[in-house]
Each structure stands twice: as C-alpha cells, then as structure tokens.
Amino acid sequence: MDRGEAIARLRSARVGRLATVTADARPHVVPFVFAIVERDLDVLAYWAVDRKPKRTEWLQRLRNLERNPAAEFVVDGYDEDWRALWWVRASGTGRVVDDASREHAAALDALASKYRQYTSQPPPGPVVAIDIDR
Fold first, then answer.
1. Burial (CB count <10 Å: 0-12, 13-18, 19+), residue 103
2. Does residue 76 sit in helix, strand or coil?
3. What is the pLDDT of residues 96-130, one digit of tens each?
4. pTM to 2 decimals?
5. How far is CA 24 from CA 17, 55, 64, 69, 91, in A?
6. C-alpha–C-alpha distance, residues 58 and 35, integer Å
7. With contact defined as beta carbons under 8 Å apart, do 90 and 132 qualify?
8. Is 106 helix (H, G, I), strand (E, B) or coil?
C-alpha cells in the first residue's frame, strides 16, 4: 500500500486503537476516534477528550503522553476473505494542543466534520495532536 492509500484509509476509518507508554514502560492501548488533517507535507491525527463515559477528563493516555510523547495507532479492515484484509499503522509524537490556538479550533472542526456527535456537543476536554512521522 502506498502512502496516499494509507492516508486515505486512516482518514476514512471510524475508530482506531491508540497505544501510548505508561510510566512503568508498559503499552496502554485504547480505542479512540480521530480526524486526519494534512498540512503541506505534514499529516496529523487529532482526538479529544469527549463526553463518552469516563472517570476523569485527565485520562491515562494523556498522562502517558505527558511523560513519553511516543504514540502509535492502527486501523484495519477485516473480511472473511483474508485476501481482502488490510491495516495501517501510524507512529508519531503526541502533544496537547493549546486551547486558545487556531490549531485547536481547526482540530475541533475536523472532528465535528467527521463525527456528527461533536457538532451538537463539542468535546469539553483537551485536544491532542499526533504528529505522524511514519
């Protein structure tokens, strides 16, 4: 699969599995929703702490990124015909986006255009960018 097709599959995926690293160097994997944005040659994935049920807005994945910004996520397509199986893994650096920035507003716009739930109820928590480097 070439880069363009990989980005298209990332963009169209409704959910992915995000991996971060805990303080004791263990993987922490959770499902997440995200939007892909291309700026010049850069590809970014944005996600936000939303209103889905959670114990706190300062999630383990945020604490993990604070200590170690390495992040990786995967999306996939399963088919009983295994010749049609595919997956895309994206790796990069995660960071919380300043909520007073243009980037924050653009990230929320990208998320709302992909997930209608965010149109009527924008995510109240932090917005995170993953600067994808491979």
1. middle
2. strand
3. 999 889 999 999 999 999 999 999 999 998 999 99
4. 0.93
5. 20, 22, 10, 14, 20
6. 20
7. yes
8. helix
